[in-house]
Amino acid sequence: MHIKIFTTGGSIDKIYSTQASDFVVGAPQIGTLLREANVNLSYEIVPLLQKDSLHITADERQMLVERVRDCPERHILITHGTDTMAASGQALRSVPDKVIVLTGAMQPAAFKAGDAALNAGVALAALQLLPPGVYIAMSGRVFRADGARKNPASDQFEPL
Hints:
By secondary structure, the protein is α/β, with parallel strands linked by helices. The protein has helices spanning 30-36, 58-70, 85-92, 116-129; strands at residues 2-7, 14-17, 22-25, 42-47, 75-79, 99-103, 133-138, 141-144, 148-151, 156-159. The strands form 3 sheets. The protein has a 6-stranded mixed beta sheet, sandwiched between helices. Helix 3 (85-92) links the parallel strand 5 and strand 6 (99-103). The mean pLDDT is 97.
């Protein structure tokens, strides 16, 4: 199994910018997470966007759908910001015959006590086990993309 990983930014990729005196979306962190976890799977990382998901446009979301649809791989992992992850998951439902899992983090991957590594691990396991469809792997759980939402009060994903 070869996994295509598309990155779009979000908190998982945030780093502290001394110039901005704030956290900004940096380079994709999924490769570092996978190397540190000694993951033994074949994968390719393709950066698509480098932005907060609140700033993803309809055209960019459509580009994501087209890139997923057009890639030959059947197993797709997408790192994504949590605020609009469910919206991108809904858009990806038009892609047939692929296992697509979106994941991200409430805290940057660079944070030692964050959720990024767990979410990436759950997403990789889901890719290997689930039938074709679109899923969200967050908060230690796997949801159908049309059956989950982010609860900002608890900083977790939950079923609808």
